[in-house]
Specification:
Layout (H helix, E strand, L loop, with lengths): L13 H6 L7 E4 L3 E5 L9 E5 L11 H22 L3 E5 L14 E7 L16 H16 L5
Antiparallel strand pairs: 1-2, 2-3, 3-5, 4-5
The structure holds guanosine-5'-monophosphate and zinc ion (ZN).
Guanosine-5'-monophosphate binds next to helix 1 and strand 2.
């Protein structure tokens, strides 16, 4: 699969330049915290990116308000994609970090119309560990949530 590689020099994030209008984009929607525009890659027709207006490298760098606004915009865009393209399926995808599959280090969410045999493929290596292992993972996360993870 061809992967896009952002060759922008440091400090000149490609999506920040797009938000500032320094490079063109096919804009779909914008509000105070987010912007939605057509992905140049168009994995399937109607493929939209929803990004924060402010530079936040990943989901973990976005504020709770920005994260909520991005999902709200993705929901609006998904409804518009259904109205305009009527795909039989639709997928949200959000990647963080190079190992998470992120190629542009400015928080964004993909809204992707899905079709039969559209060429999109994931391997999803299920492990199905015993219940005690799941309980241990949940305990670690509850402890992390209690000690505060919002900053
Ligand atoms: P990621 O791999 O980080 O989840 O997604 C980055 C996406 O940004 C890719 O799908 C790529 O096609 C898209 N992209 C990269 N540069 C530009 C650009 O200048 N304009 C637009 N509209 N999309 C871009
Ligand atoms: Zn940026």
């Amino acid at each position: 699969m061809p992967m896009f590689v952002d060759t922008s020099p440091p400090g000149q994030c490609i999506f920040c330049r797009l938000v500032a209008g320094e490079i063109p984009s096919a804009k779909v929607y914008e509000d105070a915290l987010t912007i939605a525009f057509m992905d140049i890659g168009q994995v399937t027709p109607g493929h939209v990116l929803v990004a924060t207006r402010r530079h936040a490298a990943t989901l973990l760098d976005a504020t709770p308000e920005e994260a909520a606004a991005a999902m709200q915009t993705a929901h609006r865009v998904a409804l518009a994609v259904r109205a305009a393209f009527d795909p039989p399926g639709l997928m949200l995808l959000q990647a963080n970090g190079a190992l998470g599959g992120q190629t542009v280090a400015h928080f964004h969410m993909h809204v992707v119309p899905r079709h039969e045999a559209d060429g999109i493929a994931f391997t999803w290596p299920r492990k199905e560990p015993p219940a005690a292992v799941l309980a241990g993972y949940a305990e670690r996360l509850r402890a992390a949530l209690q000690s505060g993870t919002r900053d």
